[in-house]
Amino acid sequence: MMNTTALHHKITRWFDHHGRDLPWRRPDCSPWGVLVSEVMLQQTPVVRVLPVWTEWMHRWPTPADLAQAPTAEVLRAWGNLGYPRRALRLQSTATALVERFHGTVPADPAQLRSLPGIGDYTAAAVSSFAFGIPETVIDTNIRRVHARLVNGKGLPHTSLTAAEKRLAQQLMPDDTSTANQWNKAVMELGALVCTARSPSCAACPVLSECAWIAAGKPDPDYQPTGQAWHGTDRQLRGAIMGLLRARDSVDRAELRSAVTATGKLGTHRPNDSQWERCVSGLLHDGLIVATKQHLTLP
DNA sequence: AACGCGGGGTA
DNA sequence: TACCCAGCGTT
User: What are the HhH-GPD domain coordinates in residue numbering (predicted)?
Assistant: First the structure.
């Protein structure tokens, strides 16, 4: 293992000067605000989350506020962040916080992990960022920095390995305050400098320690297979949700023409089975509800 | 371990 | 066009 103390110093110092001033990082942001930001940031970039988070925290500043909100309004406020099941789970988490934690956010990662939509990453992130508990945080940015800096790989493997977890724990500073700064700093380094596509190695504070640089920046071991979009169920589900966010309801007989008229499907024309599969899937997920004649948000 | 799940910005 | 993004839950 390399000299980790030098890495800690260089990367946290870099963060002090170059870290972004994001609202959920400010000292006056509540743990609830941190939790909301982390859920919104699950697979959605910072720039798209910013305006939605700001409006969200204005409307529902505490878990109790969100728990009491109409779910249809919650889904509309979620807007086009994507993966709207996250919004349902966030409201369910708000209810659980009221019922099980007196309306507060627990600091214990195991208790956080028990909440709907809170996985290993989000539990560790909230525990560290909101409460200063030095949990080992591992997100896609941190994995990529570790893969390059320590292992000399172009990108980490698709799935998180036990070896990666051990490495992340070994790299954690012993000092609590430094450990929490390290979590934020490595994540930010991955987001701003050590990016997936075209990293800005000239701006990197640990360029001279980087195993990937030393190895001649080899290409990733594997070929990423991107998600399809055009014609998929996700596209159609998203188009149906987009229509219902803009309307009170839609007549079931007019669903196809109304969704098609939004233009969100491009040239794709779903067949009967795809329409049926997507509508029943949205019903099953609780993202829409059906009366005899209409579909609406919950 | 692999898959389904949104949507938009970027190279 | 393909890839990427502060992942999670299910199979």
Answer: 40-192
* pLDDT tens, position by position, A218-260: 998 877 777 889 999 999 999 999 999 999 999 999 999 999 9
What's the pLDDT at A280? 97
Task: Round the average pLDDT of chain A to a whole number and report it.
Answer: 96
Q: A62 Cβ partners below 8 Å, 6+ apart?
A: A30, A32, A103
At A227 the pLDDT is 82
**Minimum CA–C1' distance nucleotide for A115:** C8
Q: Cα–Cα distance between A238 and A287 in angstroms, integer?
A: 11
What backbone phi and psi angles, to 5 degrees, belong to A216?
85, 25
Nearest to A131 by CA among A108, A114, A110: A108
Closest nucleotide to A45: CA versus each C1': C5
* A24 burial level (CB within 10 Å; 0-12, 13-18, 19+): buried
Report the pLDDT value the prediction gives residue A1, as an integer from 0 to 100: 64
Q: A153 CA to B8 C1', in Å?
A: 28
> What tokens were used for A156?
């980490």
Q: Is A38 a catalytic residue?
A: yes
Q: What is the C-alpha separation between A37 and A10, in angstroms, rounded?
A: 27
CB A168 within 8 A of CB A138: yes
- Please list, residue by residue across A72-83, b when 16 or more beta carbons sit within 10 angstroms of its beta carbon and e when fewer do: bebbebbbebeb
Check whether residue A84 has its CB closer than 7 Å to nucleic acid strand C.
Answer: no
Residue nearest to nucleotide B4 (CA to C1'): A234
Task: Please state, in angstroms and rounded to a whole number, the distance separating the CA atoms of residues A221 and A131.
Answer: 37
Residue nearest to nucleotide C7 (CA to C1'): A42
Q: Which residue has the tokens 């070896």?
A: A163
pLDDT tens for A140-187 read: 999 999 999 999 999 999 889 999 999 999 999 999 999 999 999 999
